[in-house]
Design a protein that fits this description.
Layout: H1 3-11, E1 27-31, H2 34-41, E2 45-52, E3 55-62, E4 65-71, H3 76-90, E5 94-103, E6 113-121, E7 125-128, E8 131-134, E9 149-151, H4 154-165, E10 172-179, H5 187-196, E11 200-204, H6 207-216, E12 222-230, H7 236-261
Parallel strand pairs: 1-4, 1-5, 5-12, 6-10, 10-11
Antiparallel strand pairs: 2-3, 3-4, 5-11, 6-9, 6-12, 7-8
Helix pairs in contact: 2-7, 3-6, 4-7
Amino acid sequence: MTRRARLLLLSLGAPVASGAQERRATVAVLGAIPVEVELLRARLQHPVVRTIGGIEFAEGLLAGRRVVVARVGVGKVNAAMTTTLLLEHYRPRRVIFTGVAGALDTTLAPGDLVLGSYAAQHDLGAWDARGMTNATNDSATAITSNPVRFPGDTLLLRVARTVAGARTGWHVREGGVLTGDVFLANDSVRRDLRRRFPDALAVEMEGAAVAQVCWQQGRVPLLVVRSISDGAGAKARETFAQFVRRAAERSSELVTRIVAGVPASR
């Protein structure tokens, strides 16, 4: 573990694990709100819970694979902090970020699934008289800039396509997932996001932050998997309350199938 990482973990009040104490999971699965994570934790066999920096990490077997599951909290800062702790202490080979999202594409309905071909922050850039312009940013340790779009892992995408295609009754799309520190319930803003990112399908509050930390910390492969809970428009709050549980159940089932399909050696 680097000196920088140790200082970061100490500043968070977290115990710094030695190399012998650090875990290695095949896949880490993260979500933002309780319902997104509890459904997955309930599927774990032989679960062991460890608290690091106030965050609970549940280790166990999911579909025969060693996984760690954690709730990152809502928003980009919470997501980045928890992902940093995850990568330092568990060193997962791959990360899946899952849960619910608002639909940017109006043809999507509650319960539909989105596989993130990329994740991008829609609220990072410059806002002037012409509107919002997205930009890259630099990490504290990297010489080159982060991309605007963080690509989804090709292996996880391939597995997700296969397992989703084998399940009848699911409507699955592949496209961009946008992230910002707001719950979107505005038709005008939703249309503007579609204009700026024509191939984006869903909007949420954490995915691109997780993707950026994974990118900076050794290009850890990541896939964002979301189930639609609302239409990100004027009625989003009511629709979210009505469909969040159903959407979370759908995403947790897909994630379980993806984990089962990941080769054990990968």
